[in-house]
Design a protein that fits this description.
By secondary structure, the protein is α+β, with helices and mostly antiparallel strands. It is 38% helix and 25% strand. It has three domains: 354 residues, no CATH class; 51 residues, no CATH class; 64 residues, Beta Barrel (OB fold (Dihydrolipoamide Acetyltransferase, E2P)), CATH 2.40.50. Strands 1, 2, 3, 4, 7 and 8 form a six-stranded mixed sheet that branches.
């Protein structure tokens, strides 16, 4: 199938999947008309806005990303290193109850599919007016964090500022340079200042990560996939593996989200939290570890689980992604929750954090935009934009839509994989069980990296088990990929 035909077919599948799962594939005429009237946000506002354009801010994102939500920069003071995260001030242009806000609050997230992106905000905003584009002055909310050499956060501050992105960088190029496997990308090669910046940011991120992991934050390595076209033909769904540059940004964002949650709680502000309770299927995690010769406590223990994961990565790096996926499935999905200061917090088991929110991607996620509005109202001393009842309803809706978006992304990825596999019926693959319940048993294969349902031979299998499988059926339109277990012979 040619690239154009595959993309056209996937696009139709994706749009239908969006509608099936209660997501809007298109902006309303009112939102489109409203977008046409928007221009750059004014540089003056209620709260004091600092001018931080002199700092050497950079963005690091995917090679093809145009919706730049955050910038980072590092500094130093007497107490330690300083990490700054600037988050695009989307609220400056997207107002509550506007037509654009109505679309964002309905979908609650951008949906990234193998057929393309369904953005939460119109591209005039997400890739232009509210994107922290290179060389452009932009309003931002800044989270400033003082980090001791051991990774402990010893101070923080939240405020509004004007920033300017000095260089738009990509994960793969920065990672290759940081690890010494390639020369610096051109924008880094041209600036020793930016090179020193990235080295310092990497060192701070590693310290933050080590500190979190010592408290039980889990070191997991799950594989995302991307469609690859070659000579006009869909060839593969290739793993999009993590690297040191992705980890740098992840560590900065986790720290910034924790600071944001604690800042609002300290001001007595109810917030949307991102929570993940201790896993209900801890017993299966214990069994997986026991099968690999590692005892775990009978009750959920993040510190013990992280020690096990670190040891397994060292012992079997090739199989670690499969183990990670099994653990992720058994941990369950995170969700959004209303948290009221002074009341017990659910916390986030995988991050080993009691206080955690989503605040660093307001162009892509509605909870982050809601949190930004709470932050700005708090900084300005104004009335809160949402009641507790509003926040509780938003939390439930965002959780539901996030899961619907994930279903769309999986369905389109499986449609792409089904297109690739349609000529390979009867072939055998090595599979790992990724889901096992009354609803069915699921396995993941490689080349292409995808999941499918196990129709036969699933008795007694559970998450993490390895099983040889044979492809028996594909249906791209429905995103179906079906396998049967292959009997093992001595």
């Amino acid at each position: 199938m040619t690239s154009a035909a595959a993309e056209s077919r996937l696009s139709g599948i994706a749009r239908e999947a969006m509608r099936e799962h209660g997501l809007l594939p298109d902006f309303s005429p009112e939102a489109v008309a409203e977008t046409k009237t928007l221009a750059h946000a004014a540089e003056a506002g209620g709260a004091a806005i600092r001018d931080l354009r002199r700092l050497p801010w950079v963005s690091i994102d995917n090679d093809d990303s145009l919706d730049l939500d955050q910038l980072s920069v590092a500094g130093t003071d007497a107490a330690g290193d300083i990490a700054y995260v600037a988050v695009a001030d989307v609220d400056a242009l997207v107002k509550i109850a506007s037509a654009i806000d109505a679309h964002a609050s309905a979908n609650t997230t951008s949906v990234y599919t193998a057929a393309g992106v369904f953005p939460m905000l119109p591209e005039k905003l997400s890739t232009n007016l509210t994107s922290l584009n290179e060389g452009e002055d932009r309003l931002a909310v800044v989270i400033q964090m003082t980090v001791a050499r051991d990774g402990e956060l010893v101070g923080s501050e939240v405020y509004r500022a004007i920033v300017r992105n000095r260089a738009k960088l990509a994960y793969n190029g920065v990672a290759a340079w940081l690890t010494g496997s390639a020369p610096p990308p051109p924008k880094l090669a041209a600036s020793t200042e930016l090179q020193e910046q990235l080295r310092q940011q990497s060192r701070i991120a590693k310290a933050l990560k080590a500190r979190r992991e010592s408290r039980g934050a889990l070191e997991l390595d799950t594989l995302e996939t991307r469609p690859l076209f070659s000579d006009g033909t869909l060839k593969d769904l290739a793993p999009d593996a993590s690297n040191v540059a992705k980890e740098l940004i992840e560590d900065f964002m986790v720290a910034a989200n924790g600071v944001t949650a604690r800042f609002l709680a300290g001001k007595g502000v109810p917030t949307l939290r991102r929570v993940l309770p201790p896993p209900e299927r801890w017993g299966r995690i214990v069994a997986l570890a026991a099968n690999l010769g590692a005892p775990l406590p009978a009750t959920p223990d993040a510190v013990a689980l992280q020690a096990f994961l670190r040891a397994r990565r060292a012992a079997d790096s090739a199989g670690f992604a499969d183990l990670s996926l099994s653990i992720v499935k058994l941990l369950g999905a995170g969700e959004y929750s209303l948290e009221i200061p002074g009341k017990p917090s659910t916390g986030h088991f995988a991050l080993a954090l009691e206080d955690y929110t989503h605040s660093t991607a307001p162009n892509r996620r509605f909870p982050d935009l809601v949190t930004q509005r709470l932050l700005k109202a708090t900084l300005e001393g104004g009335a809160m934009p949402y009641s507790n009842e509003d926040l509780a309803a938003i939390a439930g809706h965002c959780t539901m839509q996030e899961r619907n978006a994930a279903k769309v992304e999986r369905q389109v990825a499986k449609a792409a994989a089904a297109i690739l596999l349609s000529s390979r019926i009867g072939e055998r693959f090595s599979g790992v069980v990724t889901g096992a319940s009354d609803k069915g048993t699921w396995v993941r294969i490689s080349h292409p990296t995808t999941e499918g349902r196990l129709l036969r031979g699933f008795a007694g299998l559970d998450v993490g088990d390895r099983v040889p499988v044979k492809l028996v059926h594909t249906d791209p339109a429905r995103g179906f990929i079906d396998f049967a277990a292959v009997e093992r012979h001595p």
